[in-house]
Amino acid sequence: MRKCCLIIAVLCVTVSGFSQSATKADELFCAQDFGGALTIYGKLLEAAPANQLYLYRYARCLQQTGQTEPAIAYFEKAGEKYSLRNYHLGLLYMETYRFAEAHTCLSKYRNDISENEERLAHIDSCLSYCRLAERYLKRVERLAILDTIVLPKDDFLSFYDITADAGSLSYDNGNVTFLTSLKDLQCSVTHGDTSSLTTCYKILDNWTDCDTLPQEVNAGQHQNYPFMLADGVTLYFASDMEGGLGGYDIYVTRHRTDTDTWFDPENLGFPFNSSANDYMYAIDETKRVGWFATDRTAPAGMVAVYKFALNNEKQIITDAEQARLQAQLKSLSWQTEPTEDIDKTATEELAQQAEHTEADSTSTEIFICDDIIYSRADEFVSQEARKTYLQITELGGAIKEQLTTLAKARQTYAEEPAMRNKLRKEIEDSESKLLSMYSMLKELTNRMRFLEINAK
Predict the structure, then answer these.
(1) Domain spanning 16-137: which CATH class is it, in words?
(2) What is the rounded distance in angstroms from the CA atom of residue 18 to the CA atom of residue 119?
C-alpha cells in the first residue's frame, strides 16, 4: 500500500512539473522570448514527441531564431491542426526557393481565412510571386562562381577589374555611367522621381545631347547600372519594372540598327536575380569573366559582388534540386564536361579563388543590426552570442580551407583530362560539404544576432 502511494505521489509531482514547464514555455512564447521557449519546448517534445502544439510552437521558435531547415522539418511534423502552420511553412518554403510547395501551403491558408483578414493582400502577393518564381526556376543557368566579396555600396565597382577593351564604369551619387572602349558611346542615368537610361554619342570632339531610351527599356520607375557589350547593340541594365522577381532585376535588350528600335528587355532570371536588389551585370569578353552585384546576402549599406566564369553558351540545369540550390547561389557550380580548349584565364581565376576570399574578412566590424556594430568580441553583452561569434570565426576559417581544396581540384580537373573521373566525386563531395558549411554559417549568424539583440 505504501509503495502504491509512493508511486502515485511521484506521478503527481512529475505531472505537476510537466504542467509548470508547459505553462512557462507558453508564457515565454507569448512574450516572444523564442530562444527561451525553444529550450523548454524541446524538453517537452522529448516527453511528448507527437504533441502537435509543441511541434508547432517549437517550429515557430526555430523559425524566429533563424534556424530555417529545422523549422521546416518540425512544421511538417506538426501537421495542419493549426492553420497558421501553413502560413509560416509557406514563407519558409519561399525562403528556400521551394515555390511549388510554398504555393500549396499558402493557398490552403488563404482558403481558411476571411476576405477581411489583414494578411490577405500579402498572401495574394506571395502566391503571385511563387507562380512567377516557379517558372524562372525551370530555366536556371549553370554558373561557375570564381570569387565573391562584400563591399560598401559606394565602393562596389572597385571589384570590377574589367579590361580597357570592355569599356569603363563610374559610380557617382547612386548613378552608374558606362563608356565604351572607344569612348564614342555613353550610357547614363537621369534622375528625378524616376530614373531613366539615356545614351549619347561622340562626334569628332563633341558629345551629342543625351537621348532617353524608349519606353520598352525604361519601363519601370527606376532604371540604372547600364553596361553595353563591344558589339554596340547588347545592353544590360537593372530595372524595377513590373514582372521582375523583386527590387532591381537585371535585364538584357538589343538594339535593332536597321529600324533604330530596341527589343523588349529579357529578365536574366535565376541565379542573377532574386527578391532583393540585383544589378550591375558586366562582362569582360577578353578575360571570359563577368560580375554582378546583389544585396540579398549583405548587411545594410553593403553589397555582395560575384565574379563568374563566362559560359560559351547558356547551360540550363535540368536537375530540380541543383537548380534550386544554384538559384540561391548555394551551389558552386563547375563545368562537368569542359571543352578541351577551356579558357585559361578562367582557370587561373579558379586557382586564385581562396586567396581572394580573404578580402571579405578584412573588416573588423561585427554587424548585429543597423544600430549595433562591434569592433571586438569582448563587446558582446550576451556570452552565448560571443561564443556563437567565435564559432562563426572558426567556421569561416574552415570554409576558406575547403574553398582552397575545391579550387585546386577544379584547376586540376580543367587541365588534366585523365584525372577527371577521379576528381569528379571529390569535387561533388567538396561542394556538398561547402553547402552544409554555408547553411551552418547562416544559422549561426542569425542565432548570434538574435541572442545579442535580446540581451541588449
Answers:
(1) mainly alpha
(2) 35
